[in-house]
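Consortium newsletter contribution from the modelling node. Members have asked for a concrete example of what our holo predictions look like. Here is one, prepared for the zinc ion complex that several groups have been discussing at recent meetings.
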Amino acid sequence: MNCQDIRELIDSYADGELDLVNHLEIEKHLADCDACDAAYKNRQALNGAFDESFKFSAPASLRKSIQKELREISSEPKPKRIWHWGWFATATAVAAVLVVTLFVFRPTVPSDDVLATEIVSNHVRSLMANHLMDVPSTDQHTVKPWFDGKLDFSPPVIDLTSQGFTLIGGRLDYAGNRPVAALVYQRRQHYINLFVFPSKGASDSSEKVSAKQGYNIVQWNRGGMSFWAVSDLNAAELQEFVADYQK
Ligand SMILES: [Zn+2]
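And here is the predicted structure:
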């Protein structure tokens, strides 16, 4: 299969509609061809964007009216007859609304734990696949503009060389169903991946420190962005890195 064939099948591939032989052939091609792989990632990002724009939260007024209905039902005197049709109809309506609420309006943002697992895998993969950086540079004025046009946001790139955390480059990555910026810093022989992406509706939060598969993670939200620092560096120094980055 050449690139042209791949592009024609990429939609079906992304939707998992291909037979095994074609699927594997495309998978193999994407691993070797950066251009087709980029096209595939764009297609996935588009999928993610579509998913996001068709998800809605239940409006507060709907929630209130369900609560009111429930209160009215529970305060109603017990019916003397076994079948009280008014009550039955209301209960059915409420049950239907609840089912719709649970299944249609269920939260779709990946949980922090799922995201943490993804972030750690990204970190490990970046080191294993020898693909730590798309733009190797110690200059924040080179790294920051490199992301222009590749992402729909601009990650804050901060030089921390004098604090002992050398900026060594940046990379495009993918987490939480969206393209994200990965900033790469180094202390001694330890690498820090700092993943940055917009956090929908999340308010500013202080740093949460955790560990997964032997890697330390510090997560915080600020100014509408979500930040995830991950490294095999010890937790104290990783927190020091985060404090310096936030200054
Ligand atoms: Zn190709």
